[in-house]
What does this fold into?
Amino acid sequence: MNMAEWLARAAVEAGERPALMHGDEVVADYTAFHARAAAVADALVAEGIAPGDRVAIFMKNAPEYLIVLFGIWIAGAAAVPINAKLHAREAAWILENSGAQMVFVSPALGLDLAGASAVRQVDVAGPEFAQMTLGAPLPVVARGPEDLAWLFYTSGTTGRPKGVCITHGMLMAASLCYPVDVDPVSATDAALYAAPMSHGAGLYAMIHVRMGARHLCPASGGFEAEEVLDLSERFGPTSMFMAPTMVRRLTDAAKAAGRRGKGIRTIVYGGGPMYQADILEAVEWFGPKFVQIYGQGECPMAISALSRADVADRDHPRWRERLGSVGRAQSAVEVAIGGPDGFLPPGEPGEIMVKGAPVMPGYWQNPEANARTLRDRWLMTGDIGTLDEDGYLTLADRSKDVIISGGTNIYPREVEEALLTHSGVREVSVVGRPSPEWGEEVVAFVVGDADPAALDAHCLEQIARFKRPKDYVFLEELPKNNYGKVLKTELRKRFET
It folds into this structure.
């Protein structure tokens, strides 16, 4: 089924409900939302866009984003959402690789892109787009569960990004997992888009459309902590997706202003490691409003979930262990831990493997990567983790990030967790440095003002001696990509001679 059918149904069932909001302004109810998206679809077909063709979106968060996205689907085409933080040359490479025939752009991004790509642009703030939204509505073009809906490009921390083929069936499965495994959705809710709609935040739009909820785009077009607090207080109950760094910033801003997050119902966090010190502080301040998810573009938002109750629990004898996990498998997937000789028993670390309806059929035009990543219908995530006997999945690190020192595996996240409990450490990233004696040795890159000797003593109180850093390098900030992930590859380059 074409995911755009959900918008058509919402227009019938909830036509007069507010649908799209920009700041405090209601831009469209569900009847108008559907009419404008269907008119965009008709204009795309008039341009020669056929089912399966790719149409890109290079935009900041805005109500027009969802109009374009659903318009592309109504026409039977596939969307190629591009992170608005990418450089124009990076966006141009994605346009070329995907074979996109058209790209919808925010005004400033379009100006940057103009000299980098010849793909035809439509400025969503211009008269051409306004005209496109006024035409005759196109009926939803039929698509099957195996048909491409969303071509998602990975962050590309090493080399060029890969295009993940996300089908309509994958989106359906992942969307239906949300109210079952993550958080119920009702028509009174507002989905607040503070994180990029080209990624996790946008993937949660579908279930909120199906339920007739409001879609709230901050006027800033992104994440501003005070704006999130203001909008939630005024238009709550709000639910939103945040990267762990955003949760940290929101907590800091709320505490500084003495605000407890009135109107915020749920913050779903994921996309990177959430350190226990940060989530403990966030729950203490805001209350039980947090749910963790674990997913990848290859299985979008749908591998596991740590429930609101588990995140807030302080009574279970193993609550800290569970809080350090990413929860249990979501309803549409199987999760296993694999080793060189097959599946591993509970407690044994190995590569996390996922199978189920939300798993991709493959990468876009990349058979070599497919062969490495998909084995007997299992997605090899590249992440190292363990499953306990109760089904809780705990991540250690990416397989490429594990440090092997003296023949023993050391997981950087464990060392990072220990260091972050020191008051003088704001951020930290641990990597392996080549060592002629040990093969690799542990080095911690620290943002903060702690004394190395104090950090060494602090580590020795919490982790085994062989895991403690052999060196501490202090930085003003950690290198990060456009998705907020720390670039450990850049840190390792400092050891090259």
The CA atoms of residues 84 and 255 lie 29 Å apart. The first helix runs from residue 5 to 13. The chain has a mean pLDDT of 94. The chain has two domains: 5-387, 402-493.
